[in-house]
């Protein structure tokens, strides 16, 4: 039987910046080893930060100078891929024996991307996925990914893929990933709501796969010294809710709320065949004579130099 331990690491980006956040992540090496985890999923925008409540000085039709300064600070707190931070995470993967999926803010030229990076103990940085569609005002600060970063990575726990936060709500993206034979669906997020947990259970049940949802946890604006418009100053900005779900939608572990820590569960990927007996969304329960999906996996480049 293909049994293993998987985990979600619920942790938040440090207000002090990416160096402190990375330090906090690396401190979990022993806990990951002690848990015997083969795969650990970490939240969206963990390295680089999710600036909840920040408006970056933008109003319809104009932008304020202080907003440009805020973006510059955010840009400098992002990471290069590959870079020093990915080297440290590759070493964490090697030393702990666990594959990692982690949400980062990736710096590429003058554009930022909300990305998820894959690490394996054997190969280090293995693949990345760039969020295809930033949500709402996220589009002010992040570029869009393309079809060239839709990987499925073989880990010690099974074949893993990822969708970041609300792109989990994109039905066609889900179909594209299911068609690649996903065993474990990794969902880095900052969505703390109960309805998000419903979505995670739905994806597990729809894709007949295991789902690991890893959410950031952040204290209240008051504790962080922030003034967030329209938000209760005493209410946590992000309360977590990380969880692990089985292929019939059953909750295996979590949700963990308002604290940091590892959420762990044992899984057995051999049971996926049983789960798909009555529902295989890209197999016997599909209707290719009626519906079909084309996925463009080419990398999109603005400028091409042909020599």
Protein architecture, described:
With 307 residues, the chain is an alpha/beta fold. It has a single domain, classed as Carbon-nitrogen hydrolase (Nitrilase/N-carbamoyl-D-aminoacid amidohydrolase, 4-Layer Sandwich), CATH 3.60.110. The chain is 23% helix and 29% strand. It has 8 helices and 15 strands. The strands form 3 sheets. Strands 8, 9, 10, 11, 12, 13 and 14 form a 7-stranded mixed β-sheet that branches. Strand 8 and strand 9 form a beta hairpin. The chain is globular. The mean pLDDT is 96. GO terms for molecular function: hydrolase activity. It comes from Affinibrenneria salicis. This is Carbon-nitrogen hydrolase family protein. Pfam families: CN_hydrolase. Keywords: Hydrolase.
Q: TL;DR?
A:
The chain contains 8 helices and 15 strands.
Which structural traits does this protein have?
7-stranded mixed β-sheet; Nitrilase/N-carbamoyl-D-aminoacid amidohydrolase; 307 residues; 6-stranded mixed β-sheet; 8 helices; alpha/beta; single chain
Percent of residues in beta strands: 25-35%
What order do the helices and strands follow? EHHEEEHHEEEEEHEHEEHEEEH
Helix proportion range:
10-25%
Instruction: Give the radius of gyration.
Output: 19 Å
Going by CATH, what is the homologous superfamily? Answer: Carbon-nitrogen hydrolase
CATH topology: Nitrilase/N-carbamoyl-D-aminoacid amidohydrolase
N- to C-terminal distance: 53 Å
Number of helices: 8
Poorly predicted parts: none
Average pLDDT rating: 96
């Amino acid at each position: 039987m293909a049994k293993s331990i998987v985990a979600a690491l619920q942790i938040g980006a440090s207000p002090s910046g990416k160096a402190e956040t990375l330090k906090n992540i690396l401190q979990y090496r022993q806990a990951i080893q002690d848990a015997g985890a083969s795969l650990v999923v970490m939240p969206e925008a963990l390295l680089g930060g999710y600036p909840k409540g920040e408006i970056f000085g933008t109003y319809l039709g104009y932008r304020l100078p202080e907003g440009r300064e805020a973006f510059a600070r955010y840009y400098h707190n992002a990471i290069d891929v590959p870079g020093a931070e990915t080297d440290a995470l590759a070493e964490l993967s090697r030393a702990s024996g666990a594959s990692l999926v982690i949400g980062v803010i990736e710096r590429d030229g003058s554009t930022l991307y909300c990305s998820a990076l894959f690490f394996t103990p054997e190969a280090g940085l293995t693949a990345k996925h760039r969020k295809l569609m930033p949500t709402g005002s996220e589009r002010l600060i992040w570029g869009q990914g393309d079809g060239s970063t839709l990987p499925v990575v073989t880990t010690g726990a099974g074949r893993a893929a990822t969708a970041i936060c609300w792109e989990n709500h994109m039905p066609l993206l889900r179909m594209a990933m299911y068609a690649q034979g996903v065993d474990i669906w990794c969902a880095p997020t900052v969505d703390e709501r109960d309805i998000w947990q419903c979505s995670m259970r739905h994806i597990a049940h729809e894709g007949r796969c295991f789902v690991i949802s890893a959410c950031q946890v952040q204290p209240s604006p008051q504790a962080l010294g922030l003034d967030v418009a329209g938000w209760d100053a005493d209410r946590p900005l992000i309360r977590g809710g990380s969880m692990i779900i089985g292929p019939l939608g059953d909750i295996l572990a979590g949700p963990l709320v308002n604290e940091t820590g590892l959420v762990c569960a044992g899984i057995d990927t051999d049971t996926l065949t049983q789960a798909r007996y009555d529902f295989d969304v890209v197999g016997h329960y599909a209707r290719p004579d009626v519906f079909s999906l084309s996925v463009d996996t080419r990398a999109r480049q603005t400028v091409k130099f042909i020599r």
